[in-house]
Design goal:
The complex is a heterodimer. Chain A is an all-alpha fold. Chain A contains 13 helices and no strands. The longest helix of chain A is centred in the last third of the chain and has 37 residues. The two termini of chain B are about 20 Å apart. Classes of the chains: A mainly alpha, B mainly alpha.
Amino acid sequence: MALDYLEENYETFNQDLEDAMFEFADYDAKEAERTGYSNYSYWRSTWRSFLKNRIAVVLMLFVVFIVGFTIIQPYLPNQYEPTVVNISEETGRQLRNIPPNDQFWFGTNAIGQDLWARIWSGTRTSLFIGLIVGLSELTLGILIGSIWGYVRKLDTLITEIYNVINNIPRTIILVLFAYIMKPGLFTIIFAMAITRWTEMARFVRNLIIIIRDREYNLASRCLGTPTSRIISKNLLPYLVSVIMLRLALAIPLAIGSEVFLTYIGIGLPVDIPSLGNLINEGRVFIMVSALRYQLLFPAAVLSMITISFYVIGNGFADAADPKNHV
Amino acid sequence: MLKYFVKRLLRSILTLFIVITVVFLLMRLMPEEGYFGENGVDKLDEAQQEAILESMGLKDPVYIQLEHFYTDLLKGDLGESLIFRPNVPIKEIIAQKLPYSLWFGLFALGLSLVFGITMGITMARHKGKLADKLGTSYVVFISAVPAIIYYLFIQIYVTGILNLPLLFDVEIKKSWLIPGIAMSLGSISGYAMWMRRYMVDELNKDYIKLATAKGLSRRKIMYTHVMRNALVPMVQYLPSSILFTIAGSIYVESLFSIPGMGGLLVSAIQMQDNTLVQALVLIYSSIGIIGLFLGDVLMAVFDPRIKLQKAGGGR
């Protein structure tokens, strides 16, 4: 039926097709958006679902407060230096093992350093390590993962390398590198980053292989969408939840690994206050109940920070998953 | 099936070979001071140092060292300790340490399988209810807080309450319990989390809806369908868990001063006993590789759908 109609009216159709109809139209970004417009915004939805998770929100406020506090703490009045040994003005002796009082809020340690200042300084170190490890993990992971996913020739090779690394227990790689290299901040960060990028890379690789040839990407490419836009609008939303999760989890991990490495004696040198060093110093006094505050305070701060980041990370990963958006 | 095993086995052997070689080469990058044992660097002049290195074969080209190393390894010779217990074969040291780690490890594994899986099932059955929330809090706590923290608190307070010595003592039978329980806390949380996840996944599948529609009791669905299917992926981790009891727990053993393998690694690292560290690292990585191999094989036996199509990446 339709075909007959077309044939009958062919002449009239042909007349309507003027040359002007075959000229290129100007590309108007606003007009292009208008047809497919919906007021769905990825970030707003993510944020809205995150706010529903009350525990995570409370912990987030706590973390913002803690992070802010570690930054401004050294500039507050009446703060002691974390590495300075305090000496009594009257007797000229070191103020050793002083229980918490209004001068030293968390007391002093075995050589007279202020525990309050040391805890915040240690938290600063640990957060810094976590952040750097997280960022390098993301950079390495996304970079290697994309090459792994996109360059088909390299797929077998990188898969084999991945299998080898994945077969060895993480702790052993961590210990091996920390043992071989000189103890210090860089070694710790390097050893942690090298044990962690594999998971991220595998995730990105699998994602790319799944999504690369999906129809909506094919459509985007055919419509001439620039690669940068394909990445930011089609690929990145899938990655965001994982990126945020790994970044948030990098902090508990970094704190845990640093504590572990320092415990077995290949962590940070004693002169850099870190949560690991503090736990290790406090551990000596577990037999003496009066001095246990030296373990209790660092342990409490450390636990609160690691739990907060862990819960926030998981909460955000749930919220950032488009499947959970209404 | 056989083809799968052979392929997987060859892959594991190759991996093992690569790992051993890489670890050996990395250890060659260590400063040479580590090789002079308790005499230390200071007491020896350069000629003596050279002589020691020479006698240990460390001045040979790397490939010859590697060849020696492999021939020794194939004979089951891991070399001798340098500093921890000078000139004692590492095999002997390990033979003394192993029983402790095995005992504690298997005890902890038994505990964590029983409690972890029960906990996971309970959490999945009461998903979203109080039991699930409590369980999740436990899992979050254990995963987020570094193990040393709660180990230390167990050591301080639990031993105090039960009136036990702080440290492990072979003579006192009760002191065998606490370290084992402490060790199991982490893996209980791990098993519970995975069990819950697999069961919840399984519960959302269509065949469960069919079973419900047919009028099967919830109890029967849970135990005969969901649980059995959820246990299959858990099987994969079992060989690794069993094998890793050999490795011992680094924290628990050194905290409670149990003379086991985990504590041995810490002592070896602190004393910078290069050959001992090397041997232990090799043992631990081999355990990892063999464990994953056995896990995959076991999985294939339990779940006939699995074939080796895409090795790696797919796991």
